[in-house]
UniProtKB/TrEMBL annotation:
UniProtKB keywords: Membrane, Transmembrane, Transmembrane helix
Superkingdom per UniProt: Bacteria
InterPro entries: NRAMP_fam
Pfam family, one: Nramp
Originating organism: Pontibacillus salicampi
Highest classification ranks of the organism: Bacteria, Bacillati, Bacillota, Bacilli, Bacillales
Subcellular location: Membrane
Membrane-traversing stretches: 37-55, 76-98, 118-136, 143-161, 181-201, 222-248, 268-295, 307-324, 330-354, 366-388
First-listed, main subcellular location of the protein, grouped into a coarse class: membrane
Keyword Membrane: yes
Membrane topology: Multi-pass membrane protein
Protein name in UniProt: NRAMP family divalent metal transporter
Length: 396
């Protein structure tokens, strides 16, 4: 593979991971916490970026060195563990994909005044169409890149129209008035939780980018992915901060829409529709691809018919939303469980990094191991706290 083709794949993997993270929940979380914490939310973003990079570098490097997907690494480490990890990833991916489909329906509703259910059907067909073409993986990469640039570009425009207090945001990023632990775990879970952190790592593996000689490329792709998602987060934060700083109260039912509309009027509202649809449909693609990548090694049939399982995954997500609606209770429960998937997955990778039968003679950097262990402990604690708070809500 020549250098240009490899760089194209690395960028594709980075955008696949980043756009998988930038979904409807990402937009809502960012605007919600900006209203709650104002400029101090910059500190939360900074800490979450540091944690995201540590988690992603560890996971992507071990996948690349072993030449195996995460579920096979887990099963090699402890028989059956890969099946548990896969179940959590696929269940979470399916539940959140229903939310992504709902977000895509909302985006088309804003743009074309189409009913959310019809918009969801249209969006599901678009996502399915990507995997029916001959060069599906290449189209998936390009689709994520184009819509990723569209989302960032439009959000930058809205940010400038909102005229945020950038100086105050910079100051509070390093010296916050308040520190919100739950905001940190929400952002980390929304960026590298569940299936998201594996999206790019498994994409690189499928493209044959693995082994020690590829570590430099893997590092660049992993950091680029976090960088892309973080740029979108920062611009959206500044746009929301500009609106909040003017004393405007955001609509509780749809905080990001009210940010775009308050900042740029009717044009801003339509821009929100484009951003929401782009964020949602790219997340649908990323969730389906990554979820199926977690089960394809368990069966030759699934491996040979991977694209049809991906199509089925998207179709089921779409049908559930159209027929039942957004299953809020399931989303709450899986959201709580999602906080525990990252420490489990990262913990598995850190142990695997020191098993010669998995990584050969590779020596994992000590600083990355220490960084990873700290993340596992912190995210485990905060994930358990999140579950304790969220599960009772299902029965209230």
């Amino acid at each position: 593979m020549d250098k240009r083709a490899k760089l194209r794949l690395l960028l594709g993997a980075a955008f696949l991971m980043a756009t998988s993270a930038i979904g409807p929940g990402f937009l809502t979380q960012t605007t919600y916490f900006t209203e709650q914490l104002a400029a101090s939310f910059g500190f939360v973003i900074l800490i979450s970026i540091i944690i995201d990079i540590g988690a992603q570098l560890n996971i992507w490097r071990i996948i690349s060195i072993s030449g195996k997907p995460a579920q096979d690494i887990a099963n090699n480490l402890l028989p059956g563990l890969g099946f548990v990890l896969s179940f959590l990833i696929v269940a979470g991916g399916l539940a959140f994909n229903i939310g992504n489909i709902a977000g895509a329906g909302l985006g088309t509703n804003v743009l074309f005044d189409m009913s959310p259910k019809m918009g969801a059907l249209f969006s599901g067909v678009v996502a399915i169409g990507i995997f029916l073409v001959k060069e599906a993986n290449r189209l998936m990469d390009r689709f994520a890149q184009i819509l990723g640039f569209v989302m960032i570009g439009l959000t930058v425009y809205v940010m400038f129209t909102a005229q945020p207090p950038i100086g105050e945001a910079a100051a509070r990023t390093v010296a916050p008035d308040t520190i919100d632990i739950m905001a940190i775990i929400t952002l980390v879970g929304g960026t590298v939780g569940g299936y998201i952190t594996f999206a790019g790592g498994h994409r690189l593996l499928d493209a044959g980018i693995k082994g020690k000689e590829s570590l430099g490329y893997v590092n660049r792709s992993a950091i680029s992915a976090i960088g892309i998602a973080s740029i979108m987060r920062i611009f959206l934060f500044l746009a929301a901060l500009g609106v909040v700083a003017q004393g405007i109260t955001l609509d509780e039912a749809n905080p990001p829409a009210s940010v775009f509309q308050a900042a740029a009027g009717t044009i801003g509202y339509k821009i929100f529709g484009i951003v929401m649809w782009s964020a949602a449909v790219t997340s649908v693609v990323g969730a389906a691809y990554t979820s199926v990548s977690f089960i394809k090694t368990f069966s030759k049939t699934i491996e040979k018919q991977q694209k049809w399982f991906i199509v089925g995954f998207i179709a089921v997500s779409t049908i559930v939303f159209v027929s039942v609606g957004k299953p809020v209770s399931i989303l709450i429960l899986v959201g709580a469980l999602n906080g525990l998937i990252l420490p489990l997955a990262l913990g598995v990778m850190l142990v695997a990094a020191y098993q010669s039968r998995i990584v050969g003679d590779y020596k994992h950097p000590l600083w990355l191991t220490i960084f990873g262990v700290i993340i596992v402990i912190a995210m485990s604690y905060m994930g358990i706290i999140s579950m304790i708070k969220e599960i009772p809500k299902l029965f209230s």
